[in-house]
Design goal:
Layout: H1 5-28, H2 42-50, E1 58-60, H3 66-71, H4 76-83, H5 96-99, H6 117-131, E2 137-142, H7 149-160, E3 165-171, E4 174-175, E5 178-179, H8 192-196, E6 199-204, H9 208-226, E7 229-234, H10 254-260, H11 263-275, H12 277-300
Parallel strand pairs: 1-2, 2-3, 3-7, 6-7
Antiparallel strand pairs: 4-5
This protein binds thiamine diphosphate and magnesium ion (MG).
């Protein structure tokens, strides 16, 4: 499959513009509650989603999941309306920033329990071995999540049952405020896969084409019955862990250095040489207008009605 570099650039811009609009809405108080932005990590979602078969594969991201939703095809309006608690949101305003899902677009739920997506993805992959769907399940989680026992149980279970799972680690070097190097003796995280007997690889997670290639290879491996793959995608978050995080724990100069490696800036430098800056500026303006229109529309939509709050909820006692 040929990778569409310009399409990836546009989609990364769309995610960035969405996140910047969410930041604005949160600072205004239109969006309430805890919000985790994925600014700086967009290449993982865009490259990863492009490598999946969106007619059947299933993705399980974390609370930092807005970018996955867009990359998988959810509309900016449905995500913004969700965060704004509107009836028109993708979960009718019940999910909010950290708990929504877009099953029509293959995203089966963000999760705020760190690492919980891994065993759920293993379950979806196990189902695929019975339902004939030949589905691949992708769990995307952070470097810190690799210290959760449930992730290790999921990895061991997946390899022993040869389940079609991709464990995609978004290694942004931090678990909340703690650097990964202060949490583990060996921070080459992809090597954890080898302990369980399957393949792990480390890639440049700020290059959407490289993420695409690696996820496509892993999907092929998993789909052909050879079991799981772990991909450690190296990236940086260019903002705080949550909105309001002052990032006092980050050494001077670290964020400035990370900006040089910003996936959007990198794509832009490369594509400007090929297509000219004017073309890229046009795409940026178009995307920014699209997000601004989606936001105005969502703000004008009706709020979720408290009287039907128990509808569409399922709980077993
Ligand atoms: C089981 C569990 N333990 C702790 C927390 C608190 N917590 C929320 S986010 C987070 C950091 C996770 O870091 P990482 O997995 O690297 O993901 P990132 O936030 O960097 O994307 C922690 C510890 C939680 N939500 N769930
Ligand atoms: Mg992290």
């Amino acid at each position: 499959m040929v990778f569409d570099d310009l399409g990836a650039f546009e989609q990364m811009l769309r995610i960035r513009a969405l996140e910047e609009e969410i930041l604005r809405l949160r600072m205004n108080g239109d969006v309430v509650g805890s919000v985790h932005l994925c600014i700086g990590q967009e290449a993982i979602y865009v490259g990863g989603a492009a490598a999946l078969d969106l007619s059947r594969d299933a993705v399980f991201p974390t609370y930092r999941g807005h970018g996955w939703a867009l990359a998988l095809g959810a509309s900016p309006h449905s995500v913004l309306a969700e965060l704004l608690g509107r009836q028109t949101g993708c979960n009718a305003g019940r999910g909010g920033s950290a708990y929504f899902s877009t099953p029509d677009h293959n995203m089966f739920g963000e999760n705020s329990i760190v690492g919980a997506g891994a065993p759920i993805a293993a379950g979806a992959a196990l189902a695929a071995t019975f339902d004939g769907s030949n589905r691949v399940a992708l769990a995307s989680f952070g470097d810190g999540a690799l210290n959760q026992g449930a992730v290790h149980e999921a990895m061991n279970f997946a390899v022993i049952r040869r389940l079609p799972v991709i464990f995609l680690v978004e290694n942004n070097h931090y678990s909340e405020m703690t650097p990964i190097r202060d949490m583990v003796k060996n921070d080459v995280l992809y090597k954890r896969a080898g302990i369980y007997g399957f393949t792990g690889t480390r890639i440049d997670g700020n290059d959407p084409a490289e993420v695409h290639k690696s996820v496509a290879r892993a999907a092929h491996h998993a789909r052909s019955g050879r079991g799981p793959v772990l991909i450690e995608a190296m990236t940086q978050r260019l903002v705080g862990h949550y909105i309001g995080d002052a990032q006092h724990y980050r050494p001077d100069g670290e964020i400035d250095a990370a900006r040089l490696d910003d996936p959007i800036a990198r794509s832009e430098r490369r594509l400007a040489g090929l297509l000219g800056q004017a073309r890229l500026d046009e795409i940026r303006s178009k995307v920014e207008e699209e997000i601004s229109a989606a936001s105005s529309q969502a703000l004008a939509d009706p709020l979720a009605d408290p009287t039907d709050v128990l509808e569409h909820l399922y709980a077993e006692l």
